């Protein structure tokens, strides 16, 4: 499957001059596991055993985990695995998880994490290879669907699938050029 996505750092401000709600994205570390577990349980606990999956993906070298901080505090994260499609002709980024903690929502952090995932996918492969970003989202998750659709992801015509607890999921995709 995929190779580890290259880490992307965004630290536009220096620590000394950082405004109170400065946003920075950095690679997550083992020390972030408690935050990841807590937010996962809150955001995805109703869908299935995501807390355990996220803990295991954090240790998986194929999965790139990015943490967004606001004012120096963890505020959200994403998990992305990038690899060649089974037939090898394109690179596909699968966004496994994207979540922002409730106090930090509607401030652009979800969009910032999504844009960073798109940048990582764009860097995958080389030459004129085709690249896609894909993800699954609960069919009734209006907030997330709006975020993703505004970023150009559209439903893919694949057989319906479900989360472990039975909620219907839909697959979204965007070709990256
Ligand atoms: C979905 C989620 C990641 C959005 O994070 P966020 O930081 O609040 O999103 P942003 O502030 O970047 O919003 C970007 C756009 O998404 C859409 N959006 C986000 N939250 C929304 C909401 N509650 N209702 C409607 N649209 C919403 C809007 O179009 C928004 O743009 P706007 O603010 O200019 O209108 C966050 O609500 C979340 O973590 N939810 C729980 C986990 C989840 O569902 N993850 C996605 C599935 S993997």
Bound molecules: coenzyme A
* pLDDT averaged over residues: 89
Q: For this structure, what is the CATH class?
A: Alpha Beta
The percentage helix is: 25-40%
**Unreliable segments of 5+ consecutive residues:** 1-6
* DSSP strand count: 8
Biggest β-sheet: count, sense, barrel?
8 strands, mixed
Number of domains: 1
Name the overall outline: globular
Give the end-to-end Cα distance, rounded to a whole number of Å.
22 Å
List the secondary-structure elements in sequence, H or E.
Answer: EHHEEEHEHEEE
Strand content: 25-35%
CATH topology: Aminopeptidase
Structural class: alpha+beta
> What's the name of the CATH homologous superfamily?
Gcn5-related N-acetyltransferase (GNAT)
Tally of contiguous helical segments: 4
Oligomer classification: single chain
- The whole-angstrom Rg is 16 Å
CATH architecture annotation: 3-Layer(aba) Sandwich
Structure, described:
Strands 1, 2, 3, 4, 5, 6, 7 and 8 form an eight-stranded mixed beta sheet that branches. A hairpin with a 2-residue loop joins strand 2 and strand 3 (73-84). Helix 1 packs antiparallel against helix 2. The chain has 177 residues and is α+β, with helices and mostly antiparallel strands. It has helices at 33-44, 50-58, 109-123, 142-150; strands at 23-27, 63-70, 73-84, 90-100, 130-138, 154-155, 161-162, 168-176. Helices cover 25% and strands 33% of the residues. The protein has four helices and eight strands, in the order βααβββαβαβββ. The protein has a single domain, classed as Aminopeptidase. The two termini are 22 Å apart. The chain is globular and about 45 Å long. The protein binds coenzyme A. Residues 43, 97-100, 105-111, 137, 141-144, 146-147, 150 line the site of coenzyme A.
């Amino acid at each position: 499957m995929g190779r580890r996505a290259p880490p992307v750092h965004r630290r536009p401000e220096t620590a000394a001059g950082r405004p109170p709600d400065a946003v920075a994205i950095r690679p997550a570390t083992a020390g972030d596991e408690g935050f990841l577990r807590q937010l996962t349980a809150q955001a995805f606990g109703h869908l299935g055993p995501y807390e355990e999956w996220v803990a295991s993906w954090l240790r998986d070298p194929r999965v790139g985990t990015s943490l967004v901080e606001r004012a120096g505090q963890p505020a959200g994260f994403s998990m992305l695995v990038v690899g060649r499609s089974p037939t090898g002709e394109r690179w596909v980024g699968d966004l496994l998880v994207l979540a922002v903690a409730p106090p930090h929502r509607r401030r652009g952090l979800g969009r910032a994490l999504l844009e960073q995932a798109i940048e990582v996918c764009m860097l995958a492969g080389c030459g004129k290879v085709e690249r896609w970003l894909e993800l699954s989202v609960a069919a009734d998750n209006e907030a997330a669907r709006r975020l993703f659709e505004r970023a150009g992801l559209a439903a893919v015509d694949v057989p319906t699938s479900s989360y472990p607890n039975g909620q219907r999921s839909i697959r979204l995709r965007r070709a990256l050029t």
